[in-house]
Structures are given as C-alpha cells and as structure tokens.
Amino acid sequence: MNQDYTAYRTYLKQHWDEDISRIQEFLRQPCIPSNNIGCTESAQLLMRYYRELGCQEVELVETESGRPGVFAYLDCGAEKTLVNYCMLDTKPADGEGWSSNPFAADLVDREDVGAVILARGAQGRKGPYISWINALRALKEVDGKLPVNILFLAESEENCGSPNYKAFVKKYEDRIAKADAAFCPGAVQSRDGQVKLTLGYKGLINIRFTCSGLLWGKGPQKRATHAAAQALIESPTWRLIEALSTFRDHETGRLLIRDFYIDEPPVTDEERSVAEYVCNQFPGKSWKQFLPMIGTDVKGESDLLSNVDACLKFWYSPSFNINGLASGFTGPGTEVFRLPNQAWALCDVRVPRGYSAQKTIARIRQHLIDRGYEDISMEVIAAYEPCQTSPDSDLCSAVTGILDEEHIPWFTWPFVGGGGPWSLFSEYGLPTLFDVGLGYGGNAGGIDEFLSVESSGACAGIIDSELFFIKFLKRFADSNR
C-alpha cells in the first residue's frame, strides 16, 4: 500500500476528546433486550450518529418484539459496497461487584494497561463499534468521502437470539445481494498483541418447548391448581421433563434424534492440522484456558480430552442445550404448592459445517411426534445456518495484509462454538467477518468489562484501532482493481 496515514492520525488526535466522549455516550445508554430496557433509545442514538456521518437514508426498523433495528445507507459513489452488521445490545449488568457503575462509562486507570473505559459493552461490542464510526467520520472528513459504500444493518436483540433479524435483512435483501462483503468491527487483540481472525460459526437454533394442560388434554387446563391434586391429576411439568429426556442418551450424552448425526462429516487431516496449529498458539495452557465461552470452572468427561481433540469437538460437533426451564414457583411473586397448567424450556441447538438448521428443526419436531409428544408446542424463535469465510477472500486479505505490514501477529480460528445472525450474509454469497479489529479489552459480558484507551505495549489504543479501520477500508476498496 505504502500510503501516508499522517493526515488521518492527525485528525484522530485533534478529535480525541470528541471521539472518546462519543464512545462513552453510547455506552451510557443501556440496551438490554432481555429486560426490555433502552432498545428504542439506543436505536435513536445510533440513527443520530449515522445522520452525522452523512448517510442519505436512515430508518428505524420496527419489529414484532418492539425492540427496533436501524437501517442506514451511505452512498459514496464507490465501486464496492460493504454491509456493516451491528449489535446495539448487551447482557444485563446489575452493578454488583463492579468497580464503578457499569453504565457510567468512567475513564479509570488499570495498573496493567493504563487508562480504560469501564462499562457494560465496552469491549463486546459497543465500544469498538463507535471506534468504527469515529474512523468513518475521520476518513470522510480527510478525504471528502469513503472509498466504499456502506449498508448499515443494526439490531437491538442479539442477546435474545436475534428473533427478528432475518425478517429485517429480508426487507433489504435486493441491496444486500449487490454488496461485496459483510463486516462487524471489534477489539480482539490478546494481551501480547496477537489478533485472532475467526472464519467460521456454527448455526444457531433457538427453540421454546411448551407443554400445557390445554394442548395435552390432561392436567390443569387454564390455570394452576393446588399441588395436592397431583394424586388425581396429571402434571404438564412432568410431561415436559419426560419429553426432554428422550432427546438424549443419559449415559453417553449422544442425542437420540433420528438422523441427527447423518450430516456430520468426519474431521479431515487438514482440520486436525489447523487445530494443532491453533493449540500451538497457547503453549502451556489447557483448552479451558483458551477456548472462548468456556471458562476454567467447568468439569466433565471432556477433561480427559487433549487440547486438539477438545478444539475439534468444540468446532465441529453439534450440541443441544437447555438454557432455561420454568414452571410454577420460580421465586418471589409466584405461588408455592401449585400444580402448574404449563411448563416451558428454552433450548439452543448449535450445528457445525455440513448441517442445515432447517433440516435439524424438522428432525427435532419429528422426534417429538415419533415419541408420542406431538402435543408439546415447539416455537422456533430464531434459526441461523453455519457459515465460513475463505481466508483467501478480498475481505480477509484486506485485514491480514495490514496485520502483516504492521508486523502484528495473527492466526485464523476456523470455527467457534457460537453463531449468530451475521451468518445470513453468507447466504447472499458475501464473505463475512465478525468481531475484527485492533484494540484490547476484557471481561466482555462480565464484571468490570473494559476497553483500553491508550496503546500499551503491543496492544492498540483507541486511535490505533480507528486507524486500522481506515486502512482496512482503503485496502478493501483497492482489492482486485
């Protein structure tokens, strides 16, 4: 590239206070879909940022849940168009155990990394998203326009399983189909400065099973009755538990759904080689310490797995998890000694490459019918297919080219156990990268979540992370010209 980025760095330095204040402003506005807090207000705030950026179209997209999304388009007359996914929302944060109010977005000093912004969403992913917006503003101000057009598609309910994002995307699919790639910014450097580039995600299926006396024709029909009645009356709660137990072999943990594993391809030699390479990036650590979303305080049969085998199972094996299970007495405000008229379970099923989310849903539904539980309702809240992006795509090459030039260590992560709505863009033929960028933070979704403000050692601060986004856009625009 050999481009001079002095003018951009100068602009970012001159607007440092403004850019930090914008990040803090966004973090101070809660957006917690599970509690229906701040979703509309957050969407309206983001709309303001898009308008300030110069987007010619900015729309609030209403959803059935009442938690809106935002569509915006910035037409720069460019040859290429980038779809930009954004999640406005975060997990809850009650403040217990935090060093300061999780929605104060205070600037505090951490002994190990210096100044940080401490807030829910600081790292995952509200803070990096506004760094991205700041970078777009800087690039536009210095050059007069961006080198690519951008379709912004932001949602406020990723932490509820993105139940309405598919309908949202469908509304704009003609324009998405003409785009060149999809991208979501992040701050993903490890403490030693290394960047992890995730290429693949499992498909995610979010299902609610409900057993009610009314649908079953047994037990309490419209309301709970006294627990003493169970001597004479059937329990929908027991029926749901019994139905759930048929999904799984209690000794082996294998799922008993017919043909559930028929689409699971065997691990290839190349995939095993990649797993060995990834494990070598974490010398002296066990898989519990470096696989994301696991945590070290877990125990089970997988403790006996090698790091390589644990990675392969995490990346390429399907799973069926019960997220929540409720009926009757669930704490203050609910009655004890009741025989409930219904019970529900919220489950997520994760399927790797080779699987179809829709086929899997059909097999689960048929399993209930085959086992005699056709009365149990099965609501599919959201379903997203697995996706994977080629490391040779223009999108990946734009990222890795910058990292190589800057001598920033990086490695590719072929798959993770997570998944989400960004996989929709791969269905339109778009290479897709989620959570990409420089910067260091930690405790995402946990207590004292933070994002580093200043560059420290090998890790980028806010200015360097914003400069990375500028370089990325320019390189992506120039690729294959």
From TrEMBL:
Annotated keywords: Hydrolase, Metal-binding, Protease
Tell me any Pfam family this protein matches.
Peptidase_M20
Give the top-rank taxon of the lineage listed in the UniProt record for this protein.
Answer: Bacteria
User: What name appears for this protein in its UniProt entry?
Assistant: M20/M25/M40 family metallo-hydrolase
The cross-references to PANTHER family, in alphabetical order and at most eight, read:
BETA-ALA-HIS DIPEPTIDASE, CARNOSINE DIPEPTIDASE 2, ISOFORM A
Q: What is the lineage of its organism?
A: Bacteria, Bacillati, Bacillota, Clostridia, Eubacteriales
Q: Work out whether the entry's keyword set contains Metal-binding.
A: yes
The record ties this protein, via InterPro entries, to: Cyt/Met_Dipeptidase, Peptidase_M20
Per the UniProt entry, what species is this protein from, by scientific name? Dysosmobacter acutus
